[in-house]
Amino acid sequence: MDFAGRLRQIREQHGLSQEDIARVLGISRTTVGDIEKGRRDITYGEMQKLAAFLRIGIADLITSRSTLGASQAKYREMLMQAALSFRKVANKDVPKTFLAKLVYLADFAWFYQHLEPMSGLPYYRREYGSVADEYFTALGTLVDAGQLQTVSGRQAQWYRPVIPEDQPFVPQYLSIQEVELIEQIVDKWKDATTAQIVDFTHNQLPWQICQPNEMIPYSLITQEEPERVY
User: Fold this and answer.
1) How many CA atoms lie within 13 A of 128 on its CB side?
2) What is the pTM of this model?
3) Band of the pLDDT at 196, cuts 50, 70, 90?
4) Which residues pair with 125 in a beta bridge?
5) Which residues share a beta bridge with 151?
6) ∠ CA(67), CA(184), CA(84), 5° rounding?
7) Nearest 5°: phi and psi at 18?
8) Residue range(s) in the chain whose domain bears CATH number 1.10.260.40
9) Fewest 10 Å CB contacts: which of 110, 118, 143, 155?
């Protein structure tokens, strides 16, 4: 993930020098300068060290609190839009894992096209796929708000969007173009199984290159062939 500029902002907010950051990360001051200028990427291990030192989460490290709040709200809209689009074209509830894959594909496909993510939230290489840590919290928030309904079965869990006719879903953070991309992705995968969409994402470069539990740089998707983006 492009960390240029953000590290300097963090330093200044906490009254730290480049030498202070260098000692925390176990690197040279020159290397810290290279990170701040975008000449060198910060590693996941270095992010962990810095987050632990500052006693904040990695998500807070990547984005400012105001930006993080907006990213979380936008991510919830992505979930709702994906669930609504899936319900419309597939005429059924969307499986929990399937929904996670749809929003992941949307985030990274948007980066592929525009060199910026749709939500900007960090994703990690988990056992069952690339997922934002915010995913489970966002689902709970939408369920508590009555916008998503949980439908449980023997072996899986599905989600059904609940939108009153007098209160249609109107995204506040998603652009028309972003909604269109989500719809395109949903339309492509509407007839697939959860296993198929999981297999597709596991064969993408971001999953293949990263290590277990490592944060996945959005930029890795730009190395994919166009037909392998979503």
Assistant:
1) 11
2) 0.73
3) very high
4) 130
5) 158
6) 70
7) -60, -35
8) 6-62
9) 155
